[in-house]
What does this fold into?
Amino acid sequence: MSTAPNLLYSDVENDLRASVRDLLTDSCEPSALLARVESTEPYDAKLWRTLGAELGLAGLHVPEELGGQGASARETALVLEELGRSVAPVPYLGSAVLATTALLGADTAAEPVAELLRRLASGETTGALAVPLSAVPGAAFPSSVTAAGDGTLRGTVSTVADASAADVLVVPATGPDGPALYTVDTTAAGVTVDEAVPLDLTRRIADVTFTDAPAQRLAGSARDALDRALLTGAGLLASEQLGVAQWCLDETVAYVRGRYQFGRPVGSFQALKHRIADVWLELVAARAAARYAADALAADSDDTGVAVAVAQSYCAPVAVHAAEECVQLHGGIGMTWEHPAHLYLKRAKADEIALGTPGRHRDVLGGLVDLPA
Amino acid sequence: MSESTVDAEGLRARVRDLLAEHDPATTGRLEFLRARFDAGLAWVHYPAGLGGLNAPRELQGVVDAELAAAGAPDNNPRRIGIGLGMAAPTILRFGSEENKKRFLRPLWTGEEVWCQLFSEPGAGSDLAALATRAVRDGDDWVVTGQKVWTSSAHTARWAILVTRTDPDVPKHKGMTYFVCDMTAPGVEVRPLRQITGEAEFNEVFLTDVRIPDAHRLGEVGEGWQVAQTTLMNERVAIGGNAIPREGGMVGKVAATWREHPELRTPELRDRLLRLWAEAEAFRLAGTRLRQQLAVGQPGPEGSGMKLAFARLSQALSGLEVELLGEQGLRYDDWTLRRPELVDFTGREAGYRYLRAKGNSIEGGTSEILRNIIAERVLGLPSEPRVDKDVAWKDLPR
It folds into this structure.
């Protein structure tokens, strides 16, 4: 049984937020971000090294005996909130959330699992989970990659988040013994990672092809590990969506206070104020839903499924709404490439699809709370 | 107020003493409630001698739980919500010692019901435009005017009343706040029938009603500041209570969904689940708000809870009527009634749908609440004001 959920931010969590925000304020400034997304280095490797390795966030929720910080999903959620607020181009979701959680669900007593977790947690190695970013928690085990008797993989996985930044892929594949998780080095023969043109410029996606690629099979229940990774990813993504929405609200409020038309700040017009107040109100509930999902995941609560489904079905549209209002209420400047609002709109819209659309989560929710079709 | 030294254990001990001296099984309801008040266990955060013990407000739950477990009667707070939620905090803050002693005990026990005489036909969202005149006459004030949307006026013994005492200054400056005796000559209460068919509200006509100056709350001309205390407490009272999952309107629709497989369509299900998730998210937001209060970090989130409550109540009750299909064409009863209690989730779906329309009007319209959020929480500039520096008597109306 779980205790009463704590929906607040602890002092430790607030300290963590402050240090992450300081770093991102210094190193993730919008104009530099805009230049980066069209460069040959869309990921900020230096920022990722500082965040992942130096601040220890790459293995935040990995137990200390496996080289991590021994924190929980609550703290990881907080980092995602700040990363969403800055749309930082780092492979945090792919590596520090999805890949590590999948590995934590495998048999961590097995040395290959533990060894890889140590490398991911230290930040020296970057991972990605080879599933489409649109994968839905609880869906059937993916069948697009098969493992041969000699352990090599064959098949294709499209739109894998953060794959192009990864050194190693955690691949759900079906072999002669059934479903299993495999690890594959992205530099190995028979592995191609083709970066796609992404809607979301600050989180890259790639199509990954395995042609008799050498892989290592991991011990443990692959289905449970994959479900847990996707459920965790979906639940924590709500915090990223919260951060995206918060930036959009803050930026919009600042803009309409300073933008004068008809001789007064446009933010003094009720027609605009009421729309902004609605976004603010949505954020109040989104924060509670996102915190509840993080807390349920951290506590491994019996209510985790409901918490995640509520968080995703509620927070995903809130982020999109906040970003759309941000663009609209900025008027013409909001439609330009030079203003960063579009980066947030693109992230919000891609996040709506990521790890299950709101409608898919609502369908799951209906099953969990006895509202049958 | 003096620093409290009462903790949860201390309160439990006092509850035990109260129960020992006044066994709920053998004590009359009113007698028990009076004894509870006198023991300081009515509202523990109130001062000693006025039903409290200067204890932290969040410890009230300890007392309520212990007394409920012992089978003690409560004061039926829903019946006396205006007194508890609005009149009492205002009397506590602005009343004379004599007024506090006189009014708070029978208010809390429910012996005396209170109502609120604020809104007028010409002063709704713009409450400060109100026109009910109070003129000084010796030790009394003589009050004439019309108030509206007064729930409980037909059962109330007392009212909190805001009046115009100086028409020659701008509207916010010339108001004065009183306690009004609803049995005084010149007070006439008429039912106001609403779209549900019921008359839970009233119009109250005041004709040369005499109110002693001793029943004034706050200074002459400072009625607006006093009314702010009342209204802030009203908004806390609406939508501020802990509810279980599927509590309130969402539970009604969910039950209808479960009972009627034949009414289900995929489109209705998605809409239901959308609202279910939203209701749950706001329920969690309420939990979070109370957790913030409990650690002494109240956030501005409370301003929005009533707005969300109104939106959800309307959307959920509207969905339920639609879901019911043929049954939704029927209404239970249009007979004029004057209910003593209002239950937003009572009666049938059609009633709930119509009653919910009031949720975005009563206690501050949703539009005014959005202004408050935009201006006070987000710091957006107010609309240019044309009435700010104009004497009340010169305002267009």
